[in-house]
């Protein structure tokens, strides 16, 4: 693996053994619904375009950088929009081709935490929040707080992934045993 992606981090946080099976033993997995990252890239919705101006004003955006491919020493990712905000911070904004279901999935949050880390290193500006736009709920915008602990969570996961791959280390199982029931690796995993 040349560098880690937000999807790897999401899978690792779901169960660290995914990293081992997929990237050490190279057993391919079949993407499960639980951690599937749905992307809204390539949307050319007219209403969405019209909403972008409104959105920018509402969020206090002073500059916007579209479709940013960002990397650091461990991670790489493509952010739909990087927003520069009036309070001196920056924020990732990600479009989801999905309906808002009264809660933000952990997978979406983790993705934003990864982007926050990338933005801070590439733009040298603090990130304290991110935004999700749910295109199937009339472009509803949801703000997601991003704390230092949140950024540290994904940084630690990236370090763990590297460690597992470099030392062929068999990691601990997820503590949520219910995740094993539908796991793609359940037949080869010692629990
Ligand atoms: S069976 Fe359970 S412990 Fe093993 S990889 Fe799957 S989720 Fe992790």
Notes on the protein architecture:
- The protein has 191 residues and is α+β, with helices and mostly antiparallel strands.
- The protein has a single domain (6-181), classed as Alpha-Beta Complex (Lambda Exonuclease, Chain A), CATH 3.90.320.
- The protein has six helices and five strands.
- The protein has helices at 6-14, 17-24, 46-59, 106-123, 148-167, 178-181, and strands at 61-71, 76-85, 90-96, 129-134, 140-145.
- Strands 1-2-3-4-5 form a five-stranded mixed beta sheet.
- A hairpin with a 4-residue loop joins strand 1 (61-71) and strand 2.
- Helix 1 (6-14) crosses helix 4 (106-123).
- The longest helix is centred in the last third of the chain and has 20 residues, at 148-167.
- The structure holds iron/sulfur cluster (SF4).
- Iron/sulfur cluster binds next to helix 2 and helix 6.
